[in-house]
Design brief:
alpha+beta, two-stranded antiparallel ribbon, Cytochrome p450
Length: about 200
């Protein structure tokens, strides 16, 4: 699934986010221009472009491609009550769904979660993100094995587009609606206008 559906949704969502944040687009293009100087990016270039990585990670937080991660309990587990109710006893072989957007949108874990802020993933701030609250690829020993490939794939496409073009939304903002499914999909096509950069 990660090879197609998640990257196939993550790329247009990331471009959409860039169209809504002009300052992000400008800063990203500055990093791309400074790093590449007009040539094609290498694996090392994509790995070392910090702001590009931050933008992609923030896009995956705001527009998580998957709705949940599923886990099967190996043994009986007791979840402690968070209020006055009783503890919850879960039997072995119970399937647990971990709702990714619920954590990505929770202000306890991400300040102003509705705001697109790539600096959340800057080297000085990323260490403050609580474990397992940012999990677009799952977490733990069963994290998506293609995570690194998917991130490189997304970064490559975003880099190549922004190296040559400015991006603008070519549809009404209110028509951008995400339907929550196992893989979150845009209800309508995401229409983007590409304008050739002058430099």
């Amino acid at each position: 699934m990660a090879g197609y559906h998640t990257t196939g949704t993550a790329i247009p969502y990331t471009i959409f986010a860039i169209t809504q944040n002009h300052d992000v687009q400008v800063k990203l293009q500055e990093e791309i221009d400074k790093t590449l100087g007009g040539r094609l990016p290498t694996f090392d270039d994509l790995s070392n472009m910090e702001y590009l990585t931050q933008v992609v990670k923030e896009s995956l937080r705001v527009y998580a491609p998957a709705s949940f991660v599923a886990r099967l309990l190996k043994s009986e587990t007791i979840l402690p009550a968070m209020d006055e109710s009783k503890d919850l006893r879960l039997k072995a072989n119970t399937t647990i769904l971990y709702p990714i957007p619920l954590y990505h949108e929770d202000p306890k874990f991400f300040t102003q979660p509705e705001k697109f802020d790539p600096t959340r993933f800057s080297p000085d701030k990323i260490k403050n993100i609580e474990p397992n609250t940012y999990c677009p690829f799952g977490f733990g020993s069963r994290i998506c094995p293609a995570e690194r490939y998917a991130l490189m794939d997304i970064k490559m496409v975003i880099c190549l587009i922004l190296q040559k073009f400015n991006v603008k939304l070519a549809m009404k903002l209110e028509d951008f609606v995400i339907e929550e499914r196992f893989v979150n999909m845009a209800k309508n096509d995401v229409l983007i206008k590409l304008e050739l950069r002058s430099n």
